[in-house]
Amino acid sequence: MAMNDKSLPPELASLRASIDNIDAALIHMLAERFRCTKAVGVLKAEHGLAPADPVREKAQVERLRRLAQDASLDPDFAEKFLNFIVKEVIRHHENTAAELNGG
């Protein structure tokens, strides 16, 4: 039988509230990150730069893996998360370049 909210241990309710706050913060941080990467995409398109930067991406993966390890987070998970974000950023940059170049 499932517990209703009134019968949940207070500690569980508190942890869930913290998780909800963290999720909200993550969404806002991702939105800010994409706001910045959108501006990067515009600058790259205006200056004829490629949407992807494999050298920077490699350095970012290495940096993020170190940060994850220091934070006791699985570095493989952190790398997968970054790769997912970078793939979306590159897609945005490609779209921006196409729009600015009349395509």
From TrEMBL:
Molecular function in Gene Ontology: chorismate mutase activity
Superkingdom of source: Bacteria
EC number: 5.4.99.5
Entry keywords, A to Z: Isomerase
InterPro entries reported for this sequence: Chorismate_II_sf, Chorismate_mutase-related, CM_bact, CM_dom_sf, CM_II_prokaryot
Alphabetized Gene3D superfamilies for the sequence: Chorismate mutase (1.20.59.10)
GO biological process, one term: chorismate metabolic process
Residues annotated as domain Chorismate mutase: 6-97
Name of protein: chorismate mutase
Organism annotation: Phyllobacterium leguminum
